[in-house]
Amino acid sequence: MFSKAFLAICFAAVALGKPVARNLQVHEARTQVPPAFSLVGAASPDTVLNLRIALVSSDMAGLEKALMDVSTPSSTLYGQHLSKEEVEQFVAPTQDTVEAVTAWLKENDIEATQASPAGDWLSFSIPVSKANELFDADFSVFTHTSTGSQAIRTLSYSIPTDLKGKLDFVHPTTVFAQPFSGPRFSIPIVPPSAGNLTSRAVPSSCNSVVTPACLQAMYGIPTTSNAISSNVLGVSGFIEQFANQADLKSFLTRFRTDLSSSTTFTLQTLDGGSNPQGSSQAGVEANLDIQYTVGVASKVPVTFVSVGENNQDGVDGFLDIINLLIGETTPPTVLTTSYGFNEPDLPTSVANNLCNAYMQLGARGTSILFASGDGGVSGSQSQSCSTFIPTFPSGCPFLTSVGATTGITETAADFSSGGFSNIFARPSYQSAAVSSYLSALGSTNSGKFNTSGRAFPDVAAQGENVEIAVSGQFGLVAGTSCSSPIFASVIALLNDQLKEAGKSPLGFLNPFLYSTGASALNDITTGSNPGCNTNGFPAKAGWDPVTGLGTPNFAALQAAVGL
Q: Is this prediction's pTM over 0.85?
């Protein structure tokens, strides 16, 4: 029975065209402004915010099981990757969830549109004044102190109590993603190495300048491929970093004389992305990534995915690019990304959602590789800290994180980020390897990291004194942003041979790498990654949080994948 007073309130609300008030509860909150940002003041009430709502998916646990089944060599389903439609069945929210959230939005005169292939994201635009009222928030302007870039965020927001368990989170609200910084470019002080090599003898010059020839010699990387059109190596591009065709031609002319100097890449854009070709517009990071994919993964089709500055996903386009690829019928078989964040920059909800997006792409058969970062144990870049700072997305268990080595007799590069996530638990596939390392580590750095977290990196490759061409000049770069495209090229070449043999691409790599693939890597046992006023983690026999399981041995990897 409803009371007359309650019915009167309802009728009054309808008559006035106002929504019935709902009980709100705080959904996400930060206790303080992140150290890299400062509060400017309240945002203008009339400023329009482009917001997104993540809905709770119906069966992410089921998708994770499916991913592991198709990615674990001992599984009877190994290599039987899921279709776009099969993945969407796991990810799509229930009809009840969709109806409940959209009804609440319509009560507030908000028409949302679907913003992801599976319908787990909704997007809409409202002024700051309405957002503050709807979410009991205080949207304000914050400045990133070192770059001056500004963003409108809130330190807390609330959602209706009855939507808990249906509405995952509102975005961007409490995310404070710091702008990326790219690798440094310097002119080499030693002559460049020779062109293409076919022997495993590594020239001594590779100690000071790394080229494709050095990588071929060190890792046994083949100089040819079958150039299968469906085996695409994707390269992520952000922050208006543009890949220059003329520089690629110069690079191939000098270092890959066996390839046509006109060998190039395909361009794909989103969020207003582009790839202008002015010499002054050539990007160090973009050139590095393209030159060490096109120039190492011989004739494997390469696509440069340029994410523009019109991204409004709150994480510099990271969400947009994955949603784009998830929506494709045939996404790339490998995707390498040389950008990332410090894990504390992202709310747990956002990190989880992005990680689940990588899981979706992995289940489709894509090998996702990310550079682990360049700050040792202090995060993506060197910074002051009292406890170790893990990077994201490297802490996500559904992708492969790549650290860095240096020298002909490989040792860990001291900038190679590695450690343990504070968000994601250690996955079973790496449990034995990480437990062995922690036992050997003993009490070193006790209390400075989460011993039960997902450990990274998973693998490594050369990352120092890597030669590239930029704006018509040759020079050297360093960072794990060198290592990720190099390792990705190795995987692309393996996929090329697997596809030629009528087999599936490798897809999500880690269950393979931590089992049958571990012995096919060069174990790195020297060096460390200092930071936070410590020596960081030491590299040791087996897996370690500096170089992972090690660097590639192509012939051994061929055997491990059954070629």
A: yes
